Amino acid sequence: MIDPAAARRATQALPGIPRDAEGPVFREPWEAQAFAITLALHEQGLFTWNEWAATLGAEISRAQAMGDPDTGETYYRHWLNALEKLVAEKGLATAGALARCREAWRRACERTPHGQPITLRPEDFAGA
Amino acid sequence: MQLRVRALETVLTEKGYVDPAALDLLIETYETKIGPRNGARVVARAWVDADYRARLFKDATPAIAELGYAGRQGEHIVALENTPEVHNMVVCTLCSCYPWPVLGLPPVWYKSAPYRSRAVADPRGVLAEFGVTLPPETEIRVWDSTSEIRYLVVPMRPAGTEGWSEEKLAELVTRDSMIGTGLPKSPADLAK
Predict the structure, then answer these.
(1) What is the pLDDT of residues B133-172, one digit of tens each?
(2) Strand boundaries in chain B, DSSP class E
(3) A76 & A24 share domain
(4) How far is A23 from chain B (nearest CA, A)?
(5) Superfamily of the domain at B36-186
């Protein structure tokens, strides 16, 4: 499993991450999920924190140049952009594969009645 | 955002780069940290302040915002009152259907299929697994959250807490007691 201490070290290694004394702070579940995925990939040595910080930093600079207020509200949006980018650069998952899977999840959400668990089925990928 | 993260997790899991169980374990360490303390303050205020309590049950969203807790997407929160006659319990498998501003991240079991199906079919059995036994005459109401309405259970104030400060009362309020799968701590639990 991933050690929470590693999560604390990670937050110290990354500039600007919303955090408190114990570690990172999340506003919504998807932010925690994106953080955990990044940490898991790093723990496996698939990229270094320097590489990650550079990718994230570039993403934040790009957003600022496009008028992002940079208040921390949007931090994990940049994080997710950076993660998708690095994952593609490292050949772990192509942008196309991610887009197809995203579309499949969207279909699965649409066909699943409220309150039922959402699971992916082969037909969700049809036509993608 | 949620779909993009789901897609990432699915593709990376298929390729063996990440293990969803390991991700859940990491996320679990943050569950009790941030959100539930907000909800606990709301509940404690409702225990000591009758006017606040009335406002909370009339329209919870602005009452919760009074304490400075507001969602970014304008989610509508409904407060459910536990009484000796009625015990409320909340379910939903979509993790978007959770009152984040007051409870933080949903626990992993809350999102699990067995919890969702069994909570509806056999709420008493599920409560027993959580270590909660209610008198047989207490009615259990199960509420299904939607993306528009999220529920916050306001548990009954524990006996033996007369004259306690709001801060001290808030320490008794657990996350599970605000989902309805637990009861608040007793003064004896706190002394342990």
Answers:
(1) 999 999 999 998 776 788 899 999 999 999 999 999 999 9
(2) 76-81, 86-91, 139-144, 149-154
(3) yes
(4) 9
(5) Nitrile hydratase alpha /Thiocyanate hydrolase gamma (3.90.330.10)
Q: Which helix (H) or strand (E) holds B57?
A: helix B50-58
DSSP letter (8 states) at residue B92: -
CA B161-B162-B168 angle, 5° bins: 50
Q: How far apart are the first and last CA of chain B?
A: 42
Q: Report yes or no: A2 at the B interface, CB cutoff 8 Å.
A: yes
Tokens of B15: 């390729």
Residues of chain B found within 8 Å of residue A98, distances taken between Cβ atoms = 4, 7-8, 11
Coil, strand, or helix at residue B161? coil
Active site residue B177: no
Sign, CA dihedral B110-B115-B116-B119, equals: negative
pLDDT in tens, B8-46: 999 999 999 999 888 887 777 665 555 677 889 999 999
User: What's A11's domain CATH number?
Assistant: 1.10.472
A45 lies within 8 A of chain B by CB = no
Q: Are residues A27 and A80 in the same domain?
A: yes
ipTM of this model?
0.83
Domain co-membership, A99 together with A54: no
